[in-house]
Write a structure and sequence with these properties.
heterodimer, A: alpha/beta, six-stranded mixed sheet, four-stranded antiparallel sheet, B: alpha+beta, 9 helices, 4 strands, rod-shaped
Chain lengths: 272, 301
């Protein structure tokens, strides 16, 4: 492949319908009924929310609470934005969801399970159902872009031959088709961000969390990323995006959760 | 975009190691662990040689006895010794009883009395050396004393049992000391490896955290460090073992079958002991790393 530009046009086929750990249905791209049970808690049935916070508080060490009495639910297949000023607690809220931190009070449920009651041996499977785009990317500097993007599939124990084509296609779609072998320190800020997004969505997670996913990329690429997220959402992934970008939030038309001083309010969309 | 997924880099792609190499730390760790493995192997070879020396001496002493003959009445010392040898030669289980020549007996006391001493004027008792049959049972000192008494010979039988006991105890002590040294060195090596694991985990904390949050099992993360450290320890074990074998081979070549000193008669077969060193080093490293890494990874949320 020799794209003229570093940023290539999207393919007609969705790059996120292919990179799956489960056998896709030929027509819908969704897992077929013959797929094995999902990891981390079994199938989602009925209206069980993907994420449920009940009067949750969180603090770092003995510091004052950074989250106070936060309650909300994310229903399967929903798409929300999380906004608020710096220090409002957006990243802390996301940390609770991707299990990087535990609540100091209240109850956090993921996929119908109280995170504090999930045995440690089962949390990796739970985490593999969550894709995360970290604000600071958190790419592995010694691994190529290709290896970074393939990481979730590799950790899921899949054979490289079963996913390398999908990883290549996804990387190409996010405009990194010519940077497969590049190490993250050699990538520009926007490229790193796109790589982080590719890594988060490559396993087609049930829940995608993105912390400022368009913070370092141009508007055109930001819209493409939004389209990618929308398509992922259309395929069934629940999405929560923390963003400072009012244009992106407005353009999406999705419900907005607003945070201020560790408390959550709802600016748009249905109340919890 | 018309790129086919398997073009260019993808078909050639092989997953890269999840843990980056750290040549500076790796070399240091291999050097320190290799030196420890060298000393451990030297200790084990020394234990084997000391054990062999003690065994050899014990066997020699067990197969013989020394009889001190005192002349009775007007009988000359030579005659009394001759009678004692003849009597002992007839005891069942004795292969040979021989009067120790006078000059050899005098040579035995020379270290204490000095070369200028007029030992010829001294009433030195005569000695009879008794060699037992290789096939047990050997006669006891009591049986030998009884035979001499019935023949009217005034003699004291020394079956070397006191010396044998001392040698057996000394050999066992040397063996235990050498093996204890090897065990202590192994412990020191495991401590070094544990420190290296902690340093490695601290230096790669970001990687560990990303893997953890991406859904890697704790044991998979531990395994990354365990395999890496075990691999390095195996290399260190091979290098340290080879160096120890080289030194032992030089000692063997310089000293012959008896070694440089009679205390360490190194045999070529002793050198085979170092073959286990890489495996033992890898096993020790794997256990030390597993315990250390599991504790640290277990501390992640």
């Amino acid at each position: 492949m020799a794209a003229e530009s570093d940023v290539t046009a999207p393919t007609s086929r969705s790059p996120i319908s292919a990179p799956m750990s489960r056998t896709p249905d030929a027509e819908t791209g969704l897992p077929s009924e013959t797929d094995p049970p999902r990891e981390g808690g079994g199938p989602i049935t009925g209206p069980e929310p993907i994420v449920r916070f009940e009067s949750v508080g969180m603090r770092y060490g003995r510091a004052p609470e950074v989250l106070q009495d936060v309650s909300f639910e994310l229903q399967p297949g929903s798409f929300h934005f999380l906004t608020g000023p710096s220090g409002a607690g957006k990243s802390s809220l996301l940390k609770l969801i991707y299990l990087a931190h535990r609540p100091s009070r209240g109850r956090v449920s993921l996929f119908g399970r109280d995170v504090l009651s999930v045995p440690r041996r089962e949390t990796p499977a739970l985490r593999r159902r969550i894709g995360v785009v970290f604000q600071e990317y958190r790419l592995l500097d010694h691994l190529s872009a290709f290896d970074n993007a393939a990481l979730p599939l590799r950790l899921a124990g899949l054979k490289p031959a079963s996913y390398q084509g999908d990883v290549a296609e996804l990387l190409t779609w996010v405009g990194l088709g010519r940077r497969f072998n590049a190490l993250p320190p050699t990538l520009a800020g926007g490229e790193k961000q796109r790589l982080a997004i590719a890594r988060a969505v490559v396993g087609r997670p049930d829940l995608l969390l993105a912390d400022e996913p368009t913070g370092n990329i141009d508007r055109q690429m930001g819209l493409r990323i939004l389209r990618l997220l929308t398509e992922l959402n259309r395929l069934g992934t629940t999405i929560l995006v923390a963003s400072h970008d009012p244009d992106l939030v407005a353009r999406s038309g999705m419900p907005v959760m607003e945070m201020d001083k560790g408390r959550l309010t709802w600016r748009q969309g249905s109340a919890p | 975009m018309t790129k086919k997924p398997d073009d260019d880099a993808a078909p050639r792609w092989r997953p890269a190691p999840l843990l980056p190499r750290d040549p500076a730390q790796d070399i240091l760790l291999v050097f320190v662990t290799g030196v420890l493995c060298f000393f451990a192997c030297v200790a084990v070879i020394a234990a084997l040689a000391a054990s062999r020396a003690a065994g050899g001496w014990t066997a020699q002493l067990k197969d013989s006895a020394t009889v001190l003959v005192r002349p009775v009445g007007d009988e000359s010392a030579d005659t009394a010794a001759g009678r004692a040898a003849a009597t002992l030669g007839g005891v069942k289980g004795v292969a040979e009883a021989r009067v120790l020549e006078k000059d050899k007996a005098e040579a035995l006391v020379e270290p204490w009395l000095g070369p200028a001493a007029q030992v010829a004027d001294l009433p030195l008792p005569r000695l009879v050396t008794v060699q037992f049959d290789a096939k047990p049972p050997s006669p006891t000192s009591g049986q030998l004393s009884a035979a001499l008494k019935s023949a009217g010979v005034d003699a004291v039988v020394d079956d070397h049992s006191r010396w044998i006991g001392d040698i057996v105890r000394a050999g066992a002590a040397a063996r235990i000391a050498a093996l204890a040294a090897a065990a202590l060195i192994a412990l020191a090596a495991s401590a070094v490896i544990a420190f290296a694991t902690r340093a490695g985990l601290a230096a790669r904390h970001e990687i560990v955290e990303v893997l953890h949050l991406a859904g890697a099992e704790d044991r998979a993360i531990v395994r990354l460090f365990q395999d890496r450290l075990a691999e390095l320890a195996a290399l260190a074990g091979a290098l340290g073992g080879a160096a120890a074998a080289l030194v032992a081979a030089m000692v063997r070549l310089m000293g012959g079958a008896d070694g440089l000193t009679p205390v360490l008669p190194i045999a070529w077969s002793d050198l085979l002991a170092v073959l286990a060193c890489p495996l033992i080093a890898a096993a020790v490293a794997a256990v030390a790393t597993r315990i250390t890494a599991a504790r640290m990874v277990g501390g992640l949320p």
